[in-house]
Amino acid sequence: MRASRLRPPQRRATPVMPSETPPMSQTTAAAAPFGLAGDDGERRRALFQETAAQRLQRIALGTAWALKPPRSRSLPGLARLWLVDVVDPADGLPDPDRTVNPFGTCGIVHDPGVETLLAGYREGLFPFAHFGPLKWVSPAERCILVLDELHIAKRLRRQMRQGRYTVTFDRDFEGVITSCAGRREGRWHLTWITPRIMRLYGDMFDAGHVHSFEVWNEAGALVGGGYGVAVGGAFFTESQFSHEANTSKIGFTVLHWHLAQWGFRLDDGKWPTPTILDMGFRSVPRAEFRARVAEAAALPGKPGRWTVETDLKTVAAWQPGGEDAKGKKEPAND
Questions:
Q1: How far apart are CA 82 and CA 75, in angstroms?
Q2: Where is this region: Disordered (predicted)?
Q3: I need a surface site. Which of 234, 261, 269, 295 has the fewest CB within 10 A?
């Protein structure tokens, strides 16, 4: 018997008005060649692509990744899912509780458009694939941050007070996502942020549902950042990168300050990593995660382009869980 399907609701994407685009300073404009001005289509086509050799390498490394125990235990279920889908492809979203392997795969993404992806996130799903068709994934546990549980290390607070960095939102999405997909020192270059994923999340960025945070050093170079999906009052972090020590944590902390002020309830980090565990993320069972997302997604959230509304000294002084995390906004320092 086929698993029951959840059909995505038909919603109209929130338009992004030109007036919501943050102006770029001369320093930032020089450092961020992938800014919002110019021919977005041509720029993205040039950025969001790979050579035939790069594609072959990704397929080879992705195959090796999948065959390595214990991940290889996921392959029989994935093969069955693929065969069933070839014979009788299903419309709509899969049931997030009916996974076919330990990884959490539960379906094939047939219509990877903005509304389908948003509907998937509302159900606790996200798309994933190193190669081949995009799959819907719903892990048994999710690593989340309840915003008033954020931990800001003393060393990070000191670094933010030094004034060596500037943080922006939605200023250079293309630069951020390509950096997130870039090589990591000392590691094989395997990423799930493929050109197809870049284009999909680029469409969601244009619709005002994906947001980036950027960290710039004193020379105007992009040295840290990340991006994620906003659905109502829930944020779903997709990826981060750092080219200088702690820069992604600086941007991440500024992001969470704003999410708290804007009434967001949680940030989903998907799987636990040392970086997010150090900042207060914790794993919860799928059922609890889906209940939290359903509650948060019903909130109004923050549509359109985002801009930074405070400075690093204010964020460095923030005590999550205190009065300023309950809707009382601190004034920005002069």
A1: 10
A2: 1-27
A3: 295
The residue type of 224 is G
Peptide bond into 70 cis (omega under 30): yes
Residue 194 main-chain phi, psi, to 5 deg? -85, 170
- CA separation (Å) from 282 to 77, 141, 142, 151, 266? 28, 10, 8, 12, 11
Apex 247 CA angle, 226 and 39, nearest 5: 45
DSSP-assigned beta bridge partners for residue 215: 167, 224
The CATH class for the domain spanning 143-325 reads alpha beta
Measured CA to CA, the distance from residue 93 to residue 314 in angstroms comes to 42
Ramachandran bin of 166, using left for φ above 0, alpha for ψ from -120 to 50, beta for the remaining angles: beta
CA dist., res. 201 & res. 212, Å (int): 11
- The C-alpha atoms of residue 238 and residue 8 are separated, in whole angstroms, by 21
pTM: 0.80
Longest dimension (CA), the chain: 64
Instruction: List, by residue range, all CATH 3.40.630.70 domains of the chain.
Output: 143-325
Rounded CA separation 194/132 (Å): 11
pLDDT in tens, 138-169: 999 999 999 999 999 999 999 999 999 999 99
CA dist 29 and 32 (Å) reads 5
What is the C-alpha to C-alpha distance for residues 173 and 318, in angstroms, rounded to an integer?
26
CA distance readout (Å), 93 to 104, 132, 291: 14, 18, 17
Confidence of residue 185 (pLDDT cuts 50, 70, 90): low
Q: What is the CATH number of domain 52-139?
A: 3.30.70.3550
> What separation in angstroms does the CA of 132 have from each of 82, 189, 192, 314?
10, 18, 11, 45
